[in-house]
Write a structure and sequence with these properties.
This protein has 429 residues and is mainly α. The chain is built from 21 helices and no strands.
Length: 429
Amino acid sequence: MRRQITSFTLAALGGGLLAVACGAGNLEAPAADVPADIQQCRSFDQLMPNFVAAIDQGRTQNLKVVVEQQLLKPLREGDSPPVADVLRAIFTTLTTYASAPAEIGARSGQYCADPPPPLAQANKLCEMRRALAVLVHDGKGVDAINLLDPQLTILLNYLTGTGNDCQGKPRTVNHYEVSGLFSRMCSQDANCQLGNGLDLVDGLTAYVQTTPGKKLVADLNVLATKQSLIDQLKPSNLSEDQAVALVKGLIPVIQSADSASLKSTFANLPLSASLKMDLQPIIDDLVDVLNHPEIIDPTHSALNCLIVKDTKYDIARMVYRLAVAEQCPEFGLTRLTNTLQGLETVDSRGSLVYVANVLSTSIRADDTAVDSAALVCKTLFSNTGNPSNAQLVLPVVTDLVEHHVLNEAVCAADTLLFGCSGGPQPACQ
């Protein structure tokens, strides 16, 4: 950015000297008319002060090295860099959307309707534009980040062994083994394919927009408030080994479940009568989910990948330690459901889910982009080497999150896409 500003200044000086050389030195340009209500956009340094400070202080250097040396270079001569393949797939999809006919209800000569039609009937490109307006220009993206920020910060601190735990004690042990697990799950081998994860995202984001999907979300919100479940998830009632044993037993049941076996297994679980009664609506919802192969098939594949790669059940142990052992409020069921409900309020039209669906679908449709996205994941989370990529990257990400750089990015995107004189900028407050 600073080099670009310097280059622009030199170009401007050069243009002035050229004008003088061409005989324009004795001419006086008329004064420009300046509208009284014009608003000058803030500079990049002003829009993203914490990010600029992190760069100036060298705090992003490790991330820069990994990205430049491993993700912005092609693996083979003539190929595109992995990051470029992912972006190409996304923009190719958007270009395809642009060739679709105008939205139903759009005025003559217009492409998008105002007011917009229901989400299921919306033109995909029009909906992407609305999503950008809601998430960026209306500042809803910052609201969503603020809702998710506590969970993300605790998770990153757990992985990097920094900050305090949820009991107020300094973390002294890192868990890069979990990061390494994420890397192995992105390995694109016989057991793990990123395409299965993208299919699952596609299926779930579509399902939660249906009536049964909304009922499942609502039932989960209600379940989180039930005292029977809260009591069951206390450290005195559930040890880490017991939690891992429960996960070990449930995964094969989920993989092979049909409606009859699901109901039978649930009936035989060693749970209190009150907890079983509170869980019954969720079981009924899952019976419906079993009839959706677009969700169940990728779920089976994802669980198989998890079993093969996570032989020590590190993810289950992490969830237990944060939610049960440390009793992190941010990972308590009530707080998690409040966060989800907050996201629903912030994004009442479903733009967040819609954008997630579009991005996953666009990458999934391009095999090269899928492989490249998997490589990006595998590279960034890798825990091999000394220091490993995870040890270089994750502390930088943790630092940027804690300094609210994500919020600054939404503000900068608002200024870039909508200008600074298009009304209030809540993301920039």
